[in-house]
């Protein structure tokens, strides 16, 4: 196990089977949150907005939802269409930022929901939430609850993604360029010429396996001795050796 798997390229193959349904659930819940945030924005332009409401939390929720669609949409495309361009470190950073934004969005929504649904007392007079405030507070409370669920699911997705990357340091398969390593024949075919060049036999004429090689007997092909005649010196008889 090594952290090099987080910087490798390629989709980790050891992701659990439930990761895909989990990501689909995140997208489906984000669609519901988008509808609730849009409803909260519509209430903002009514009488409740006149009392001091603002669209900060609802606007942040819409932004986070659209960002989530972009992140998971791009990652889905890379996983199934272009896995060779799937940079794990980029996916890791995107998941981390998504978790941070979801935490901010649902926490802010919960804070505003408690404000709209609470009873306000001023000068000894307490005023409860009217119909507009209840609509605004209810929509933001639902966004906060569903956003918290998406936040937890995003953390689970990040945990198993990191674990799968660490368990699979590299996505490539390294193979020998010229076949098997260690002098083994490529494709199982022997080259007789290379085999003959590589065979070395002892000087005694034997070959591996004990079969001797016929050699010439000493003197069998020896040349006969050459007789030399000494040229006679002028005035002397020729001597033969």
UniProtKB/TrEMBL annotation:
Protein name: MARVEL domain-containing protein
Family matches, as PANTHER family: MARVEL DOMAIN, MARVEL DOMAIN-CONTAINING PROTEIN
Transmembrane segments: 24-48, 54-77, 89-108, 140-162
Organism: Sporothrix stenoceras
Protein keywords: Membrane, Transmembrane, Transmembrane helix
């Amino acid at each position: 196990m090594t952290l090099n798997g987080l910087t490798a390229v390629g989709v980790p193959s050891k992701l659990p089977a439930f990761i895909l349904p989990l990501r689909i659930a995140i997208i489906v819940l984000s669609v519901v949150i988008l509808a609730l945030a849009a409803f909260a924005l519509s209430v903002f332009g009514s009488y409740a907005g006149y009392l001091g409401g603002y669209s900060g939390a609802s606007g942040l929720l819409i932004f986070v939802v659209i960002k989530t669609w972009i992140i998971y949409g791009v990652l889905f495309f890379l996983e199934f269409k272009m896995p060779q361009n799937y940079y794990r470190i980029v996916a890791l950073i995107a998941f981390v930022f998504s978790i941070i934004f979801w935490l901010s969005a649902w926490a802010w929504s919960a804070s505003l929901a408690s404000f709209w649904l609470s009873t306000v007392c001023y000068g000894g007079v307490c005023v409860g939430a009217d119909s507009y405030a209840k609509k605004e507070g209810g929509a933001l409370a639902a966004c906060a609850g569903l956003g918290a669920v998406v936040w937890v699911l995003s953390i689970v997705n990040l945990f198993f993604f990191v674990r799968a990357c660490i368990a699979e340091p590299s996505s490539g398969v390294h193979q020998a360029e010229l076949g098997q390593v260690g002098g083994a024949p490529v494709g199982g075919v022997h080259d007789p010429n290379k085999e003959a060049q590589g065979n070395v036999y002892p000087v005694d004429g034997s070959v591996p396996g004990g079969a001797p090689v016929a050699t010439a007997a000493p003197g069998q092909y020896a040349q006969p001795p050459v007789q030399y005649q000494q040229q006679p010196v002028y005035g002397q008889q020729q001597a033969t050796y």
